[in-house]
Records
---
Amino acid sequence: MIARRLSRPFCTDLGVAERREWLVTNGRGSYAMGTVAGTLTRRYHGLLVAALEPPAARRMLVTTVQIVAECQGATYALGTNRWASGLHAPEGWRYCSGFVVRDGVPTWTYALGDAVVELAIAMPHGRDETALALRVVTAPEPVAFALHLVVTDRDHHGGSLPDPATFVTTVDGDRAAIALPASARPLHVRVPGATLTVTGDRWSGFYAEREAERGHDPLEDAVHALDARVVFPPGGGGGIVVGLVPATDDASAIVDAALARGAALSHPFRDPLLGELALAADQFVVTTTAGASRTSIIAGYPWFADWGRDTMIALPGLALACGRVAVAEEILRAYVPFVRDGLLPNTLPDAGAPAEYNTVDAALWFIEAIRRCAAVTRDETFVPALFPVVRSIVEHYTVGTRYGIGVDPADGLLRAGEPGVQLTWMDAKVGDHVVTPRIGKPVEINALWYAALVTAAALARECNVDDAPYDAAAARVAASFGRFWNDARGACFDVIDGPNGDDPALRPNQLFAVAFAPALLGAERSRDVVDVCAHELVTPVGLRTLAPSDPMYRGSYGGDQRSRDAAYHQGTVWPWLIGVFVRAHLNVYRDKPRARRYVEALRDALDGDAIGTLGEIFEGDPPHAPVGTIAQAWSVAEVIEAYVASSG
């Protein structure tokens, strides 16, 4: 069993319990998330956020289920709400004696006088449902529960509550259906053995503190649509299931199935940390139904969908390192039809909007993922099927494609960029201002370009195709790569041949050359790169995107969207970069125990914003507070990769 716990002192400290979050997903892009305290501190907190066009078009449908227990003449409200007035009411966090994420299932224990009650939340894999299972662990007599179902119907990024009168509820025994006016479909409810009562009143003024911190409207209204009353004897239990399809299992069965699935995913790993990371990895793998059914990767929860660059960076760690080779093959094959003019989409947006191709590196990461998969697949058709798209990407990049992407005939290096467009992973934009435009020849793009050419040559040989053009192009890149070296700093320029010349900013991008193509810099320079990055960029939670000594460095990440985007790649720490750093460190020093220490430092980050997973970014200045998305695919993937690489 994989478990991460918070004991009573943490659960009953409201400041701590409100900052600790949980997340469950269903493999379709739908999710449920909230705080250990029970408060809704983000607009994304809710019990059912359903992807109507998996994994896109996600809508907040169920805000909360407020649970009130009655035992021995006393009443205990287990929920906690923060209101616009500043008050917390009720204060259910005071009764919480423990919280655990057990095999991926968040579970609370409440001490209610002489009774102990357990609450677990799970989503069945592949179904848009959420189950809340209650169990009376011990009690001197039966415990009665009143369940107050609170719903809404809006885009998960925000929006107004429709008229409460339009949430028409019909009851049939222990089942109910609630018309969702904006989504034009019913929400199904099942509470076996319960008495259901239609309500329909408006609850106004939920206050989302984290949204206020981000400069967004923190207020939320919802509809108290339904009440359920049910009684469980000591040792007994049941619960409520809410979803877009009529429930076929009760809440306890759904939780049991989720626990079994979590155990099956984590069991193959002897190392508990890898088992926990494998559970986190599974949350990002989704089956989409937009167009033809395909497998993909959600970039991050709660606000990202499946993105090309993120998918390809994360795929080796989330799938291959977790022994899910078939999943990796499915994803790579599924992305082939999206390649246009040699480019892989940067984003596949919500609600069926057209794919966006504003990226130079996604296609290069695609080739790297193909290389990694080809090395382990047993499918003899994989390389012949994927080589044509590799060849197409290389050909388009060589002759030139969109956004100024193309090989410079003067030196064989890859250049990219045009004003107003952000093409690399450092892609923050404030209005029309690109914070880190990096027009010219970025160092990591050329390292990845070299690796792509080497891969193309190897795959060509496997397919009995002439490899000479790829080998020649790779040799030209290797001969010119020395142009990136900055003798004055003993490190690489971040970009050369840009509109303002060569950029000496100390960023982590140079590590890609040491990690993926160490021959490009040679032993001494590779060591210098690793050492300077270790000294100025490495933190206990990942690597800074800019050295603190740089006048453009921003050590804090907060405020409104404009302020946050301005700091996004100007010093903010990214956990996913630890994977690149560890690869580079191992290539230079060949010292696995030393490299492992950098990964071990991230263990505590699994208790960050979201328990049991890794978020997107941390602030550059100590104590490196977690910010950004609470669960990020490439953060989890690259820590898995780094941990595996430094094992043994």
---
Amino acid sequence: MHITVLAAMFIALLAGSSVESGDVSVWMGYFDARRSLVLLAGSVLILWSLLRLITGWVVRRLERMGVARGGGLRLAGRIDFLLRLFILLVFTAQLTVGGWTNQVQADWGLSRFILADELLLLAPFLLMIVLFWHSYYPVNRYVREHIVAGQLAEGMAARPVWSRRQYISFNVRTGMLIILAPMLLIKGFLDLITVIQQRWLGPDLWVDIASKLIGMMGVAAIFILAPLLLRYIWLTRPLPAGPLRERLELFCRRMGLKTRDLLLWDTHSAVANAAVMGLFGRIRYVLLSDSVIENMPDDQIEAVFGHEAGHIKHHHIIYLVFFVLGAGSFVLLLGELGAWILERWLASYPFWQDYGPWLYSGWFLVLIVLWALAFGWVSRRFERQADLHGAMVVAPNENSTSPVEESQISWAETSIANVPDTNPEKPASGLTERGARIFGSALIRIALLNGISIEAHSWRHSSIGSRVNFLRTLTLSKRALKRFQRVVVIIKILIVLSVVAGVTGTSILYLSSR
């Protein structure tokens, strides 16, 4: 969901900037802006009707297919993805050919007010995504009912399935506000700097440079301090005192891991997950959801916690930020280079006046897609490195397996049966087969508690099955482990070099344009 919200923000900002740059006739000239409200209302009503029809069809298919076999879970996940993609396409049409951007910025003139135009441009998307959650709740409820039934059958803790209101509220907080809150703060701060410069300071070169430096420092400050706000958006509270907290605090001391607090994330026991927020120890939180604590043994909880600690130890958040800066700079440079080449070659042709902005936007969209694919690929390697860390720290004592842990280990073995059970080399240093199995079983239990197929993958995460198989492979070969670690090191070096090259290139481009 996070990538969907980010994509919607990008589309809204791109559409708004196209109006400000004077491309209205090409981008938004197909329908009169006066009809935008009618088109907007009609598209939302049609979308809501389609959502209700599709949801009913999915529930009927799930009743015939069943959930336990996994095919139903894959169906629910794929329909969820396709509907979110469809909403993005409808939203894009509303902003462009639907005339909504013209209505907000040209007719109402709301671009004069900080964040007013951004919020209204995003309003159709926010409305449609809430309607999506409202309509898709029966599918989620059907899956959750089977999960709760399985928990009760195994003698595990289980709560009643959450209500539609709780489901929507949770998704608004964790899927929408977690992205919108910091992004809108950043956009509002940058707009404020621009307004101050335009109204009182003027277009002087050094003033312009100073304002951009202040803007970058403000963005960095918002990003660094965001966890102090996000912990309340996510409905968290300090992890209660007890044996589990003592064990995790001891783990943090053993690993030299600094955190502001360990938090219990309230999800109505509907989400089994963990997360880490914050770049620095004084403002860093590690979150464990209530479902993880209620339904997983301590070794598995420590494995999940070790995964999050791996993100911290290997500085994944910082490197991903660097990737955004470096690769984003390259996107900007290549975008400008592409625009220069297109204009140089095609400016003499008549169709350039009408379709030039479309060609430039298409080129820029291709670069954004490539950036997103590269970001996802890097993120998946970082996730696997965190998996490796979680497996290496979870089992320091090979002889301390409890009966509960043994049952979870055998459960994990069913997912890695396709990996040859041979060991041509000694186990890789620091990684034991037992640690890999415990961590793999934790991943599988998380998938089951969340109602996710172990074959499902996402933009930033490989499938659970492939991650478990990968760990198993590393336990069989030191060579494979060293090769993977070498790949991650190369990725990090390239990210740092991309930041240096990208910042240098954009600085030269900016100064040459003055």
